[in-house]
Amino acid sequence: MILGSSEEGSASNLGAPDAPQLIFDVGAQDFETRVMAASMDMPIIVDFWSPRCGPCKQMMPSLEKVVMAAGGQVLLAKVNVDENQELAAALRVQSVPTVFGFFQGRPLDAFTGAQPEGKIREFVQKLITVANSAQPGALDIAEALKDAAGLLAEGNIQGAHELYNAILHQDALNVDAYVGMVRCFIEIGQIEQAQTLVDKAPEEISKVSAFAHARTALELAQGAGEDKGSIEDLEAKIKADENDHQARIDLALILFASGKKEGATKALLDSIMLDSEWNDGAARKELLKLMEAMGYSDPITLAARRKLSSLLFS
């Protein structure tokens, strides 16, 4: 709705908040104290709306729902532009709904027009992430991700899990940390917990291409759980027939599931070296899945990629 339009309607109490301390009305008289000053300590979303605006009424319940779900990490201030036209003009609000995200006395982000709940959630989480990052003792997320990946590669699953959890506490939509959590559960054999994380991943995470790594790692772990025989049995099969490529692939999956990643990649590389085209390149496809599941920066992945290139292009 463009401000100044002649659309008629009566004012209504849209989506009365269940928790007034989280969601409240604000006007020109108290905007300075309840938004500008208060945002020095925590992020505050400001929704400029009008009771004459249909899209405002449609979006407000979703906005309130997302704020309530944030559990006090952000506040929502609602400004009725019909009653606060000068305030709207001061912030250059030209149409409603217009939503600002304030932190430390200034607007960090904004959007205009009704948005779906997923977009609102992403907007709110970004604001919370910025605010959390500004707190004393906040993690350097880039460095923390590197440290967590290192701990995971070293087999320190507990340490990696704690660090990934801390990252997600600061940035709930960090896809690398979310994928890391899935890998931690897989590493300790808690496949059901890993499946739950994958199934319940927020839309903002699940639609990111990097999330495919988590799905791949889970698929590999589930495949390794199938009855393929023991490591000893499979090694005996390969010793009896070095061209038993299916045994090599099955061995790789079991080794990978048991944490023996180098042995897993070696089993597949040996198969590729003997016959790279067996079963339409099955060993190569499985190796690519393993590398994706481990992460492309993992030292074992990097070594396997170099070896694979030398085999395929020598």
How is this structure best described in words?
Helix 14 (282-294) packs antiparallel against helix 15 (299-313). It is elongated and about 85 Å long. It has a five-stranded mixed sheet with strand order 1-3-2-4-5, sandwiched between helices. It is of the alpha/beta class. The protein has helices at 31-37, 54-69, 85-90, 117-133, 141-154, 157-170, 175-187, 191-199, 203-206, 212-224, 231-240, 245-257, 261-274, 282-294, 299-313, and strands at 23-25, 44-49, 75-80, 98-103, 106-112. It has 15 helices and five strands.
Low-pLDDT stretches are 5-20
Overall geometric form: elongated
Radius of gyration: 27 Å
Strand order of the largest sheet: 1-3-2-4-5
The main pleated sheet reads as:
5 strands, mixed
Task: State the total count of DSSP E strands.
Answer: 5
The total of helices stands at 15
Approximately how much helix is present in the residues? 55-70%
Structural class: alpha/beta
Order of helices and strands: EHEHEHEEHHHHHHHHHHHH
- What is the average of the pLDDT values? 88
